[in-house]
Amino acid sequence: WALMGLAAANRREDREAIERGVVFLMERQKDGTWQEPEYTGTGFPGYGVGATIKLGDPLLTERLKQGPELSRAFMINYNLYRHYFPLMAMGRVRKILA
Asked: Is 41 among the domain residues?
């Protein structure tokens, strides 16, 4: 997340920190994985309303403060996060460092 935040800010003075972030990911994820003894979750978007969500509800986006695409489950399986987010960060940084 830190690397994506630095990439989004795209400030010249952050270039060294961005480069260190890339080195950090490459050194620790040589085979593309993030070593965890088990998968853990932090929650499920849209499930915190305490009721079944009706996708046809015209006020859904307003009530949940998110779009209906996130109202039942996230689009990426949790076991893929360790691949997806580092790759996304590296892709965003590539444009800056090129």
From this structure: no
Residue 90 · residue 21 · CB < 8 Å? no
pLDDT for residue 59 is more than 60: yes
User: What's the domain count of the chain?
Assistant: 1
Q: Is residue 15 part of a domain?
A: yes
Domain limits at 10?
Answer: 2-32+54-97
Q: Are 70 and 45 in contact (CB under 8 A)?
A: yes
What's the pLDDT tens digit per position in 12-43?
Answer: 999 999 999 999 988 887 776 666 666 555 55
- In terms of C-beta distances under 8 Å and separation of at least 24 residues, what long-range contacts does 5-9 make, across chains too? 6/93, 7/89, 7/92, 7/93, 7/95, 7/96, 8/92
Radius of gyration of the chain from Cα atoms? 17
Q: How far apart are CA 69 and CA 91, in angstroms?
A: 24
